[in-house]
Amino acid sequence: MKKIFFLLISVFIFQTISVSQSEAIPVFARKYRTSCSTCHIVVFKRNAFGEAFRKNGYRIPGDDEFFVKEEPVSLGAEAWKRKFPDAIWPGTLPQTVPIGFYSHLRATWTEDSGSSPTFTFDPHELELLIGGTFGDRISFFGTWLVFEEGHSAENIGRLGELFVQFNDILDVFGSFGENILNVKVGRMEIGAIQSFKEDNRITLAHYKTNDYKVDKFNLRKQQSGIELNGILFDRFDYAFGVVNGNLVSVKDNNNHKDFYWRVAYKLFGMSLTGIGPEGETLSTAENWRDDSIQVAAFGYHGESDFATTGTTTATVAGTTVVVPKSDTVGLHSFDRLGFDLRALYSRFELGFAYVKGTDKMMPLKPAGFADVDSHVYFVEGQAMIFPWLYTVVRYEDERHKQASATIKDVENLVLNLTVLQRANVRWSFEGVIFFNDDAHKNSDTGKINLLFAF
Questions:
Q1: Kind of pairing, strands 330-345 and 311-316?
Q2: 8 Å CB contact between 181 and 168
């Protein structure tokens, strides 16, 4: 009951706060002179149009040039196209530096003896965002962590995403339609989790299917590599990628490459391409509605070396032997196979995702390490009470056939109330309740979070 009481008090406190209107707008809102709510129902959760905008290389589906209000800087005349290959193909630069920021201020309460809730909002995170286009077929996006709570000065300044996408590869000479094949190169959030992307969630808590770990790997961390993606027949979405698989730095530290895939199909609602009737304005009224069902399947296969220093014991053909840790003890091979579903009707959304994980050590198993089979899923319901008021309830379950001090079975409930004070100013009140978890010492938590983007 303390958790519920804490959340109710948080809502009451918010209702007594008065903040003057914010004039801050993100990069793409500046470019098109439109509200954040054109592409987002809640910053940063995108609506169907926003997803089509992202998939289209951060361009308005259809006639993008018609909607641009901030004219780009031309890098060559249109006549140069007729001179190609005896001239450089003309491109563009954004008129203004395409940089935005978003930040979190957060207060956290944990159900521990000796802890008490505090309403002092401490800076939690400050992140830089860049994004734009170089003409009609090349786009870019990146994030840079400027500050994060709990990290010392030497550990901040971390690269999140930084990639370039080459769009409509098969349509260069007008032989094929748009959106069929795009190539993304750089550091990115992998395409396997497109249905429930981390940057598209309302809750502060990460999706369990993306976040759970057996060793150091999880699906939500950005990785460096190359991805092919596209849309077929307006409704079929696919992605295939090859990435380093190294979660320590941008560079790879082994000879193995990981790969992933995803296929999805959308029934009803706006097409994945987002192409529809053109107009002189971009809609911000009831653009949250997209009565539809989307189903997807995805997979990830990865390998990493398992090596340390000193000596340890390992099992070889059923016999325990002593091996030097300075040698590679073995290869950690892991697979993730899953499927997900999103169903939207009127003001409601139902989401479900399941991931089966398999982790194996080959050919040697360090003492205390066994092969692990994991089953992780969540069920989530979202409701829009008003266009500025959302609630989310998510049940999550994580089970492992082999458990240890670092591999835990977890069952929890996430409760979230999100309020948009402005299109780019968002308050979140969230509680996480753990069930049957006395042995693992996970503590119920409550959070108040203020997010603003500019």
A1: unpaired
A2: yes
Tokens standing for 414?
A: 């996430």
- Residue by residue, DSSP assigns 146-188 as EEETT--GGG--EEEEEEEEE--GGGTTSSS-TTS-EEEEEEE
CA distances to 106, 350, 429, 445 from 205, rounded to whole Å, are 13, 17, 11, 11
| Contact call for residues 274 and 234 (beta carbons, < 8 A) | no
Q: Report the chain's terminal Cα–Cα distance, integer Å.
A: 37
Domain 2-453 has CATH 2.40.160.10: yes
Report the C-alpha gap between 342 and 353 in whole angstroms.
9
Q: Are 306 and 328 in contact (CB under 8 A)?
A: yes
Higher pLDDT among residues 196 and 44, named by residue: 196
Of the pLDDT bands very low, low, confident and very high (cuts 50, 70, 90), residue 337 is very high
Least confident of 55-64, 69-78, 98-107, 309-318: 309-318
- DSSP string of 22-91? P----HHHHHHT--GGGTEEETTEE-HHHHHHHHTTSS-SS-HHHH--SPPEEES-TTHHHHTTSSPPPE
Q: Average pLDDT of the chain?
A: 77
Distance CA 9, CA 6 (A): 5
Cβ proximity of 374 and 359 under 8 Å: yes
Burial class (CB in 10 A: 0-12, 13-18, 19+), 320: exposed
Inter-residue contact 209 to 219 (CB < 8 Å): yes
Provide CB contacts within 8 A for 57, sequence distance 6+: 133, 137, 138, 139, 165, 167, 182
82 φ/ψ angles, rounded to the nearest 5 degrees: -75, -20
The neighbour count for residue 351, using CB atoms within 10 Å, is: 21
Phi/psi for 351 (5° steps) reads -125, 145
Run of H or E residues at 110: strand 99-110
Written as one letter, the residue type at 97 is: V
d(CA 396, CA 350): 14
Instruction: Please give the radius of gyration of the chain, using alpha carbons only, rounded to the nearest integer.
Output: 24
